[in-house]
Amino acid sequence: VTLFGSGFDAATATRPAPNKVTLSREDLEPDHGDSWESVNAVLQGQPAETPEAIMRARFTAVKYKDINLLAATEVEEGTTQRNRAQGWAVTLGLQTQEKGFFDNLFSKGEEDIESLKDVEGFEVVDAKADWVEFKIRCKNGKTLHEKSTFTKNDKWGFVYSGESEFGEWS
């Protein structure tokens, strides 16, 4: 499986061009168990059959720092896919962003989100028709526990709607 990389063409809204990361069953199975094939299918360009499948693919994108897959599989009103990819690049430590006075003043919880730069495990707690409750374990010992809502999408099967519950770090 080749993850999508830095070749996103915003003008034509096509899928990103493949990058150099190729994943095998051995790469996917430790995080996804018997569900590795559904992740593999999404990473090969097939629409996700369930919100759980796209969430698992999104975790794999976080783990392997595939900002374009993350940006393509989420919706955020008023933000372009390119801008979402840039935001993920900062979150995952691929780019730095200079902070102003107010950024430092209002950055409560930002150190937690920076934990996503280095993840080590994924667990689905529960999944239903349009949401997935999951935990992401990070190498710094922190865990993100979240319940995310997904909407149907012709290209990807499902995409993250931008709506979440919990979003708690422990």
Would you give an account of this structure?
This is YchJ-like middle NTF2-like domain-containing protein. It holds the Pfam family YchJ_M-like. Residues 50-159 form the YchJ-like middle NTF2-like domain. The chain is of the alpha+beta class and 170 residues long. It has one domain (25-169): Nuclear Transport Factor 2, Chain: A (Roll), CATH 3.10.450. Helices cover 32% and strands 29% of the residues. The chain is built from 7 helices and 6 strands. The chain has helices at 25-32, 36-43, 51-63, 67-72, 81-91, 101-105, 110-113; strands spanning 2-4, 18-22, 119-127, 131-138, 143-153, 157-169. The protein has a 4-stranded antiparallel sheet with strand order 3-4-5-6. The chain has a two-stranded antiparallel ribbon with strand order 1-2. The longest helix is centred in the middle third of the chain and has 13 residues, at 51-63. It is globular. It starts with a strand and ends with a strand. Residues 6-20 and 101-108 have low confidence and may be disordered.
